Structure formats: structure tokens, C-alpha cells
Amino acid sequence: MADAPPIRGSDRSTVLDPDLGGVSVAAEAPRAPLSTTDLEDIERATIQRVFEQVKGDKALAGRMLGISRATLYRKLKRYNISMGSPGSSSHTLQ
């Protein structure tokens, strides 16, 4: 009987965990690092979502995000997120 070819496309491998008495466990293979653009898209979406949840309350949004109001203003401007009155949602995610 011929050996089966390795399964491709799997991002998990099986390893023996000595802390579990040599029990076989699945371990995730390292993934490619996120690009700067990916990180910016994630940050933009997170800020947009929080800003909408707090209905435009910049102080509360900053606290929820763990950033100062000044940093929040800078990021709102950078990502062109509407800073209109609370409750306004003139900017939508695409």
C-alpha cells in the first residue's frame, strides 16, 4: 500500500504535549503577519463600531477604546469617520 500524500491547506498540526503525559493535541501553525493595511482596516472598523454604539459620545468612545480624546479625534480624522452630532451616521462602512 502506498503512503498517502500529506493533507494540504491545514493550518493545524498534531504535537505531543509533555505536560499532558504525551497526549496528542492539535496546535495551530503560525500564520502570516497582518499587513499594515489589514491592521488599519481593523482599527477603522473598531473605532467606527464603538463610535456608533456610543452615539457619537467622544469621551465615552475614547474610554471604551482605551485611548485619549485627542487620539480619538486624530483617528476619526485619519479614517474620515464622521464627527457629527450624536446619533448622526453620515459615514457608513463599506
Compact summary:
The protein is α+β, with helices and mostly antiparallel strands and 94 residues long.
Explain what the structure shows.
The chain is α+β, with helices and mostly antiparallel strands and 94 residues long. It has a domain at 36-78: Arc Repressor Mutant, subunit A (Orthogonal Bundle). It has helices at 36-53, 58-65, 69-78; strands at 12-17, 23-28. The chain has a two-stranded antiparallel sheet. A hairpin with a 5-residue loop joins strand 1 (12-17) and strand 2 (23-28). The model is unreliable at 86-94 (pLDDT under 50).
Distance between the termini: 53 Å
Multimeric organization: single chain
Radius of gyration: 22 Å
Please list the strands of the largest sheet in the order they lie side by side.
Answer: 1-2
Summarize the helices and strands and which ones pair or pack:
Elements: E1 12-17, E2 23-28, H1 36-53, H2 58-65, H3 69-78
Antiparallel strand pairs: 1-2
Helix pairs in contact: 1-2, 2-3
Primary descriptors:
single chain, 94 residues, Arc Repressor Mutant, subunit A, two-stranded antiparallel sheet, 3 helices, disordered C terminus
